[in-house]
Design brief:
Elements: H1 4-18, H2 24-34, H3 37-49, H4 51-55, H5 58-61, H6 65-72
């Protein structure tokens, strides 16, 4: 019998490995829509830890203002230099 949880976990791990600052918003939205917590957390971590690359991405430029504010206000945000 097909083990769906194993298949789900394999796909989830593959997707987690593909997340980068240029695509983390898309992954975050898909993960939230489908309640894939670890994928959503990894996407958030990339957004918060790779801020310089993240804000240079096309996905960031297309974000709604409220979404940008939500991420900027996150206590886990890591900024190496405010003069970026």
């Amino acid at each position: 019998m097909l083990n769906l949880q194993s298949l789900f976990n394999t796909c989830e791990n593959q997707l987690i490995g593909l997340i980068n600052p240029q695509n983390c918003i898309g992954f975050h939205k898909v993960a939230a829509l489908h309640t894939v917590t670890s994928l959503q957390k990894k996407a958030e971590k990339v957004m918060l830890n790779k801020l310089g690359d993240f804000v240079a991405s096309q996905e960031f430029k297309e974000m709604e203002a409220a979404e940008v504010i939500k991420h900027i206000q996150d206590a886990a945000l890591k900024v190496g230099d405010e003069w970026v």
